[in-house]
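Figure 2 data, in text form.
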Amino acid sequence: MNLADRLQTTDVVCAGGGPAGLAAAIALRLRGLHVVLADASVPPVDKACGEGLMPDGVGALRALGVFPERRDHAIFRGIRFVGPQGSAEAHFPSGHGIGMRRTVLHEALRRRAEEIGVEMRWGARLTGIAPGTALVNQEAIETKWIVGADGQNSRIRGWAGLSRSPRKSFRIGMRRHFRVERWTDLVEVHWGNSGQVYVTPVAGDEICVAVISRNRRKDFDGLVRECPQLARNLRNALPLDEIRGSATATLNLRSVVTKDVALIGEASGSVDAVTGEGMTLAFRQAVKLSEAIAANDLRRYGAAHRQIGRLPNLLGSAMLLMDRSPGFRSRALNALSKNPAIFERLLVIHLGELSPFDFGMSKLATLGWRLLTVR
């Protein structure tokens, strides 16, 4: 028996079994491709994040055939910014967002992948790639396509020669869950001097509190104390778990594809967690990746990937400027609190329901001017 007789053959090998990898595997399997997914971890797989999906993310999840049980998530209907200058809120023009624990989302994706026949190898590591071959725990698998969904420090990216630009930002995120009576049906973003605190309902009387700070010495409780209104709301809250942390960064790649390798999720670049868009971006990328592979042309995915990330990168830059500049942050929060229609319109653009082009560049310029000059 020669080597070719012993090789397993598949259409796609996907390295990484987080939400991005599972979403890619599901989207590809739904197009009839055989997919082998390998991850060194064993479910449940967790990571510190804000645990909220905006309405476009909910739609992308449903397009993959994933419909979380109602008891497993909470609905939110908009966003509220809270700072010393006051608060501003905007409601979604249509649809709703959902908050759910990362482990619950991962299990829902894993079940869907299993249901449609994705071959999943947990506790298995991709140890190398070559043209037409992937090594999984040193076993050679013959494959036409390789998908790298192995995170910010992607090994697939390095093996494929897909270089990245220097980090534009690097901050620390921490997350903890609390049991407390909900006081709003919005996701709240509290702005402190050292960073932001996100409050997302995730089920019933349970909330996720995620802090993001540029100050690596700032602890979870210290940042919460910088937000007096939130600190009061959490005074009698019951912590449900230990604090979990991770890094968040803005990374851009010149390209996310080669002839037969494609990157997705944080392996393909990332926006700062301040945008709340990480998982939504991955789900949208998964659909476009499956379309490109079905068309036998990864260049289509490369172009779609750039388009998908354009607005989130713009939003991330603006919000990081608010984080770094107290003066700009004060002016922006003051403007949004006095002109709620501005916030509503920005949210519509962010959700992709209205493009900056359709809105009109002159109106966007006027919008920016009002944010900068309001008193």
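Caption note: Residues 82 and 174 are 19 Å apart (CA to CA).
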